[in-house]
Amino acid sequence: MNRSSFLLVNITRRPFFVVFSLNVISFFIVIFFSSGALTDYWNILLSLNSLALYNLIAGSIFMILSIRHRPIERYGLALMAVFVLLLLYRIGSTVVYTQFIRH
């Protein structure tokens, strides 16, 4: 097995590293969109910013819990799933508002 596939298998077996990677990506998305770039054009990007922000919050909670208690990982993943569902609702309501109600 070569080095890159070994790294990929290791990352996918450990949810902590997956969440950490998502947190890093989310942090840069929040910083980029909070600077005002592109947010005047698409409301979907505002929802993407919110998704990144919620993911950052949930991921941080998950990482703190998983450092202290290893078996808590599945609860952290469940918490992140709840945040993702909330964000899907927010994106859907944003699309409905911009497409149907505002016109």
Automatic annotation (TrEMBL):
Where on the tree of life does the source sit, at the highest rank? Bacteria
- The organism's lineage? Bacteria, Pseudomonadati, Bacteroidota, Chitinophagia, Chitinophagales
Q: Which UniProt keywords apply?
A: Membrane, Transmembrane, Transmembrane helix
Entry protein name: Uncharacterized protein
Spans traversing the lipid bilayer: 16-38, 44-65, 77-100
